[in-house]
Each structure stands twice: as C-alpha cells, then as structure tokens.
Write a structure and sequence with these properties.
Layout (H helix, E strand, L loop, with lengths): L4 E4 L8 H23 L3 H14 L7 H14 L4 H17 L10 H10 L3 E5 L4 H9 L12 E3 L9 H11 L6 E5 L2 H9 L3 E5 L13 E2 L10
Parallel strand pairs: 1-2, 1-4, 2-3, 4-5, 5-6
Helix pairs in contact: 1-3, 1-4, 2-3, 2-4, 4-6, 7-8
Length: 229
C-alpha cells in the first residue's frame, strides 16, 4: 500500500536530544515550584496536580510541596508521566513567548516536511511531550512557524509509545490503514511497536553510526527518506 501519511517523533528525530535535556528540562525544573505555587488554583493546573497525586499513590489531600517533590523526581528520571508533560508544556509556552529559547529542529527537517506536505502526504506528530509542548516547539523554531505543516498531534493520552495499540489508535484517528502510515523515530522499541501495529518504519540515527544489523531501515537525515520506496 502507498504511504499516505508520515507520523514523526520529535526528540532525536526532528529535534536534538540535547535541546530537550539541556534547555527544556532544566528550564521547567528551575521554575516549577514557584510557578505551581502561583497557578495551583487554576482548574487546569489543579486537575494535573490531582492526576499527579493519583499516579504517585498520594492521598487527594497531599500538600502541594509533596506533589512538587514528586514532579521534580519525575523530571530527573525523565518519566513519561502525562500530568508532568502537561505542566511542562505550560511552562515551556511561557518560555517560548518570552523569547527565552527557540524550538530546535535539524536543518534537513523543514524542507522535507514542506515537500512531503506539497506532495499530498498527511503529516502528524507523536511524542511523549504534551500536544501543547509539541505545538509550541514547532511554532517557535529559528525557521519560523512549522505548525501549519501538521494535520494532527498525539501524546501519551492516546497511549504509550512502546505499545502497538497506541499506533492502531493513531491510525484510526487519522482515518488511515496502518500500512499507509510511515513512522519516524530514533527509538527501536517505538519502531517495533509501530511495526507490530502494521505501520511502515524508518529509524533516525542523528548522533551515531547506523547499525547494519538493525531491524528497521536507518537514515541519518530526513533527506535520505523516500516515503514511496
């Protein structure tokens, strides 16, 4: 079946791992306690705090200071917890708006995305970061606003990235058969899950040498990807 859509990961695929771990994570960690103290009463934030308590096994009345310690621990452990990702997304939105940083994308990414969209392919994003964080990153790149290129965004609310059911659900949301969707990621386990769900796969190897024994086709840049191959 011909490829009709490209679903892409972000970290290590469109964007540098270093940007996430050396810019975004420290920015959120440094500001999280004061920001939560100021915004904890907002319904959206309160909902994420309640979800944090539930996921961490804390009682509903656990104090904010205890919840903050849990969230900071999750940041340090790079835990893919949905409430943490939602709160980080809010903090990063403030940082983008203030011009504290720009969303990093590799130079080969924007021209390929534009060419694929112009060729009629549907482009979508699937990342552990919240949909808001995904949109903010692509809206504030040094190459300008890339969000008009994407038709859909998915995060861990649809399922975790190493579970085949997540990719089945994404294809259903896109209204496409799995065989018509190409998934791009740097993580073998994510690609394994996508392939198990019937998607085509390509592995990005941005900062190393491709493994000739790899189970997925490997490339070092988007320019080496032919969706129709």
């Amino acid at each position: 079946m011909a490829i009709r859509a490209i679903l892409t990961d972000i970290e290590g695929t469109t964007s540098s791992i270093a940007f996430v771990h050396e810019v975004l994570f420290p920015y959120a960690r440094a500001r999280l306690p004061a920001w939560l103290a100021a915004h904890a009463g907002e319904p959206e934030v309160a909902g994420q705090l309640a979800a944090t308590r539930a996921e961490a096994g804390l009682p509903p009345e656990a104090p904010l200071a205890q919840v903050i310690e849990v969230l900071l621990g999750w940041i340090d452990a790079d835990r893919k917890a949905t409430p943490l990702k939602a709160l980080q997304g809010r903090l990063w939105a403030d940082g983008y708006a203030a011009g504290d940083f720009h969303g990093h994308v590799y130079a080969d990414v924007p021209p390929c995305l534009r060419a694929w969209q112009a060729a009629g392919l549907v482009l979508a994003v699937y990342s552990s970061g919240s949909v808001q964080a995904q949109q903010q990153l692509f809206a504030h790149t040094a190459c300008g606003d890339l969000t008009p290129l994407f038709s859909a965004y998915f995060d861990t609310r649809i399922g975790h990235k190493r579970e085949p059911a997540s990719y089945t659900a994404i294809c259903a949301a896109l209204g496409l058969a799995p065989a018509g969707v190409l998934f791009l990621s740097d993580i073998t386990e994510e690609l394994d899950a996508a392939r198990s769900a019937g998607l085509a796969t390509v592995q990005l190897v941005r900062d190393g040498t491709p493994d000739p024994q790899a189970a997925h086709r490997q490339v070092t840049a988007f320019t080496a990807i032919d969706p129709y191959a």
